[in-house]
Each structure stands twice: as structure tokens, then as C-alpha cells.
Amino acid sequence: MSRPLFLLMMNPEAISTTPQVVNSHAKVSAQELKLKGFKAYEVDTAVNPGLAYRRRDFYKVALVTSHCTVHYADRSIELKGTCLMFANPHIPYSIELHEPRLKGYSCLFTEAYMKENDRSESLNQSPLFKVGGTPIFHLSPEQVTYAEGIFQKILAEQSTDYLYKGDLIRTYLQLLIHEALRMQPTSSFVQHQNASSRITALFLELLERMFPIESPEQALPLKSAQDFAQQLAVHVNHLNRSVKEVTGKSTTTHIAERIIGEAKALLHHTAWSTAEIAYSLGFEYPTYFNSLFKKHTSTTPQAFRKAM
């Protein structure tokens, strides 16, 4: 029987706190990733059936050697043999492992790290990381040897004191990227029976990851059901039907309720003006924010703040 693992290579926080991870290299630290911009590690971890979708803050290139199935929105793909996978921090995914342990290599990195010495297009526009794609590549024996060699060089180099090791590791990552660009991503998708539940989980995770709002200049990147559907690479009608079927509420209702919840917190705990709060929550005009707030709370933002 297969057991679900809802992270391909785990996020930095999970790795740093999960004793099941067997890693001969230093444990992955989110703070270290933010400072250096990259971190590579060898993966050999048992499966925890209780894990759920989790936020990922970094881009990832992973070499997966375990038999598993990757679930992405309403699509699934089975990985047999050794595969190379590219993941971006904007779309959650899950993996169903068909073996006792997940094994392979992984390298996490930020977009700023990869673009440090050039002005190339955003990683979001790369064929390997673009939303809507499924950049999973089945490797031939020769490609496996090549990719494993690159990961081993990255692991060895990150432990040295070489002044330009950041540039060298960046070059190694580019070699993996170019090797993948020479191949065509796999297209052996299958529809999953519980696609509605999976899409709903992805939607709710994306919605929650936008909060909390930490600055008046921070505007919500996704504000409508259409925005979320585009980010998840599904049709908006499909998203709306799935969310309604699973939760009993519409996609728009979930978005509005989460925005109102954040608005209450900002009105209570900050000194931001109503206009600043409205902008940070994605409203072009404060009057639109006032109307939505009153619709859901039967009071105005100013009255709510005074009452608090």
C-alpha cells in the first residue's frame, strides 16, 4: 500500500526539525537559505503519513530516485526510475510515495541568487518553472550518471571556503537546467479520482500563504477566483465547482472572508490608515474596501477600530 508524502523534498523548516531525515550534510536552515541564496542536501527520509500540503519558499531542483506519484492540481504523474524535477515556490504539490523511504538529491535556491550576475527573464517565465507546466523528466542511465555527478559536485563545493563557490554552484545549477531544456517534459498525466479535494486544498493553501500582511506597501497578488485559477493552471469554472463541492462555500466567499479576517487584525493591531489597509488588501479605492467590510461585519472599518 502506498503512503502519501505531501512534500517532494520537504521545506526548509520541516527538514531542520524532522529527526527522520538522514543527511550527511548540514541540516537545511531557512535562515541560511535567505543569507546564501542556496542550499543542497542529500535526501533519505522515512514517510510520515500525517503530513499535509506545506508552504515552500524557494525554487528547487530535485533528483528523485524513489518510486512515487506527483500530484499537481488535478493532474498526477507516476515517477519510476530516476527523475529530475523542477519546482517553484508559488504552486503547492504533493507526492504519494510507493516505497518506505524517499531518496535523492535536492538543491533549494532563491531567484535573486540565480539572477545575481545577469538580467535574464524571471524564473517564473522559464519553461522549467512556469506555472502550468509539469517539469518532470525521466532520465536515461547516462543522464542519471551526469545529474548525480552535478549534485555531488554541488554538495562538495558548498562545504569549501572557495571565494567564488556561489558562482560555481550557480553554474552547476545552470548545467542541470540546460540538460533538462534539451529534453521534453513527460506528458503521461492521469486524472485522479479526488481531484476536487486536491484542487481545493491547493486553493486554500495559496489563499492562506498570502497572509499575514506585513507592510502597507504589500498588496495582495491574488484577489479573484480567476487569479487563483490561473496560478493553479486550472479553469476558473473547474476551481469554483471543486471548492463549492468540497467546502460548501464559493471561491469568492473564501477569498472575501480571509480578507475580512486580515482586515480586522490590521485594524486592531496596527496604526495604518484605512486607505493603507485597503491598498494592502488589494483594493484600488478605500470605498470598495469599506463596502465589503460592512457587508460582512455590519459595521464600518472605522467603527470596528473604535470598538476595539
From TrEMBL:
The keyword Transcription regulation applies. Keywords: DNA-binding, Transcription, Transcription regulation. The keyword rRNA-binding does not apply. Gene3D superfamilies: Homeodomain-like. SUPFAM superfamilies: Homeodomain-like. Residues 197-307 form the HTH araC/xylS-type domain. PROSITE patterns: HTH_ARAC_FAMILY_2 (PS01124). This is Helix-turn-helix domain-containing protein. It comes from Hymenobacter mellowenesis. The lineage of its organism: Bacteria, Pseudomonadati, Bacteroidota, Cytophagia, Cytophagales.
